């Protein structure tokens, strides 16, 4: 029962938020260097994003990696699609594609 509830919760969060970051800690107080770096890249772009602190949500921390076959955090979703973790976000920030993606996603919201 808990497993189904957790999956439904995750799918709702992803559906309701055009940009959502599953991370350790909060944007104001990240609790892992990978999450900190990812928040830094998103803040540089300056578009709004939702977040879930998986350290405060152990069921989500356990379930999300299985749902989207991505084993680690952070995980960035844009318009319902998993973009990736810290490495991918930093690469996309460097080549300009993160800005383009987020501008498009938040313009549609
Ligand atoms: N290369 C990864 C690094 C992320 C990573 O290694 N995260 C670890 C440590 S924070 C993790 O989430 N481990 C699984 C867990 O703690 O649930 C990325 O690009 O995001």
From TrEMBL:
<dbReference type="Pfam" id="PF00462">
    <property type="entry name" value="Glutaredoxin"/>
</dbReference>
<dbReference type="InterPro" id="IPR033658">
    <property type="entry name" value="GRX_PICOT-like"/>
</dbReference>
<feature type="binding site">
    <location>
        <position position="61"/>
    </location>
    <ligand>
        <name>glutathione</name>
    </ligand>
</feature>
<keyword id="KW-0676">Redox-active center</keyword>
<protein>
    <recommendedName>
        <fullName>Glutaredoxin</fullName>
    </recommendedName>
</protein>
<dbReference type="InterPro" id="IPR004480">
    <property type="entry name" value="Monothiol_GRX-rel"/>
</dbReference>
<dbReference type="InterPro" id="IPR002109">
    <property type="entry name" value="Glutaredoxin"/>
</dbReference>
<feature type="binding site">
    <location>
        <position position="73"/>
    </location>
    <ligand>
        <name>glutathione</name>
    </ligand>
</feature>
<keyword id="KW-0408">Iron</keyword>
<keyword id="KW-0411">Iron-sulfur</keyword>
<keyword id="KW-0001">2Fe-2S</keyword>
<feature type="binding site">
    <location>
        <position position="32"/>
    </location>
    <ligand>
        <name>[2Fe-2S] cluster</name>
    </ligand>
</feature>
<feature type="binding site">
    <location>
        <position position="24"/>
    </location>
    <ligand>
        <name>glutathione</name>
    </ligand>
</feature>
<comment type="similarity">
    <text>Belongs to the glutaredoxin family. Monothiol subfamily.</text>
</comment>
<dbReference type="GO" id="GO:0046872">
    <property type="term" value="F:metal ion binding"/>
</dbReference>
<feature type="binding site">
    <location>
        <begin position="86"/>
        <end position="87"/>
    </location>
    <ligand>
        <name>glutathione</name>
    </ligand>
</feature>
<dbReference type="InterPro" id="IPR036249">
    <property type="entry name" value="Thioredoxin-like_sf"/>
</dbReference>
<dbReference type="InterPro" id="IPR014434">
    <property type="entry name" value="Monothiol_GRX"/>
</dbReference>
<feature type="domain" description="Glutaredoxin">
    <location>
        <begin position="19"/>
        <end position="83"/>
    </location>
</feature>
<keyword id="KW-0479">Metal-binding</keyword>
<dbReference type="GO" id="GO:0015036">
    <property type="term" value="F:disulfide oxidoreductase activity"/>
</dbReference>
<dbReference type="GO" id="GO:0051537">
    <property type="term" value="F:2 iron, 2 sulfur cluster binding"/>
</dbReference>
């Amino acid at each position: 029962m808990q497993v189904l509830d957790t999956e439904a919760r995750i799918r709702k969060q992803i559906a309701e938020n055009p940009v959502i970051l599953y991370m350790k800690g909060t944007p104001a107080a990240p609790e892992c260097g990978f999450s900190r770096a990812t928040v830094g890249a998103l803040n540089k772009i300056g578009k709004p994003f939702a977040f879930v602190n998986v350290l405060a949500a152990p069921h989500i921390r356990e379930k999300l990696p299985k749902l989207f076959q991505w084993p680690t955090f952070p995980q960035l979703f844009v318009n319902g699609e998993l973009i990736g973790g810290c490495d991918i976000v930093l690469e996309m920030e460097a080549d300009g594609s993160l800005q383009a993606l987020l501008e498009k996603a938040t313009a549609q919201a």
